[in-house]
Amino acid sequence: QLQLVESGGGLVQPGGSLRLSCAASGFSLGDYAINWFRQAPGKEREGVSCISRSGDTTNYADSVKGRFTVSRDDAKNTAYLQMNNLKPEATAVYYCAASLSIWCELEGRQAYWGQGTQVTVSK
Questions:
Q1: Cα(72)–Cα(53) distance, integer angstroms
Q2: What is the DSSP secondary structure assignment for residue 114, as one 8-state letter?
Q3: Rounded CA gap, 108 and 111, in Å?
């Protein structure tokens, strides 16, 4: 069964950090660029970050630049999103996805999606 499973979400105070993981099964994550998206209640889904298949190109939404870091460990078939200095507006369900492209495209089309993990930033 082909699937992506996110983990690492939770409740954190403003200024705190979380690291999200995206584990693939049934296929090799190393064959794909990886994207992270988020969707807040009542808002459209937005691209947060991406990393190319080779891992040498990354990109970030302006709202998270300098605070979020995307990475991948193909040996573990897992990708990560390190989120630092979190703000309340980061509250959303975060999804990872395997891209149809090998390049890093923030809003590109995706082949596989995870089920999402909730991140809540609040006092």
A1: 9
A2: B
A3: 10
